[in-house]
């Protein structure tokens, strides 16, 4: 049965969000793809899938913007079956260590990378609750958000926002524990070639998007298994 999927941060053709959009469309699903600014690549995809791809403008740092996007989505679809909170941010100082890092950049990054996905969950909750197949929310986290495995002396913003996202995911998992129609988890997606700078990454974004699509179907109703997983489906240490 085709499903309706909302994916955030989908405007960059080489990145994970856009390739997830492509995979779901190819699979015959309906996709609500969110962006902050116009994307030529997404427009080309919309021309190819005029009936099943809807583009929403949404800044996940802004409650008003997320609420407006949720209202627009409710005009387009009666339900959402899957949300992939993929959008994230890192400041210009992300590779710097303490002496050179502007600490005032951490809170805005947490606002996007950790609070943003929960803003989306809250605003789109009525549509998730209307899912007939049982809705899943996947928060794309990172190994960089693992406190137990932390080895870096940089990523003060990115590591903190992903650790906070993991905490919020677990708190929401507890909150929805007795709701048979809603599941939530966070994922370390692996190291993917999502920007021209990380050509050394082993995973191709288009190929990997299909691995993740299949994994999410496996995990849709799994409320007892690990809440923070890798792309192989195994638990990742918090
Ligand atoms: N690539 C990897 O190897 C890797 C490893 C571990 C985890 N991850 C995680 O996987 C996900 C995808 O990674 P990626 O490398 O494909 O990401 P990316 O290229 O950095 O893309 C991030 C997306 O988030 C959007 N975004 C940023 N701030 C936003 C805001 N305030 N509101 C709405 N959208 C916003 C960006 O939009 P604009 O285009 O408008 O800037 C962009 O489309 C991320 O959550 C990342 O942390 C990736």
Q: What proportion of the residues is helical, as a percent range?
A: 25-40%
What's the CATH class label?
Alpha Beta
CATH superfamily: NAD(P)-binding Rossmann-like Domain
Counting structural domains, the number is: 1
Question: Roughly how many Å apart are the termini?
Answer: 34 Å
Helix segment tally: 6
Give the biggest beta sheet: 7 strands, parallel
CATH architecture type: 3-Layer(aba) Sandwich
Model description:
With 238 residues, this protein is α/β, with parallel strands linked by helices. The protein has one domain: NAD(P)-binding Rossmann-like Domain (Rossmann fold), CATH 3.40.50. It has 6 helices and 7 strands, in the order βαβαβαβαβαβαβ. The protein has a 7-stranded parallel β-sheet, with helices on both faces. Helix 4 links the parallel strand 4 and strand 5. The longest helix is centred in the middle third of the chain and has 24 residues. It is globular and about 50 Å long.
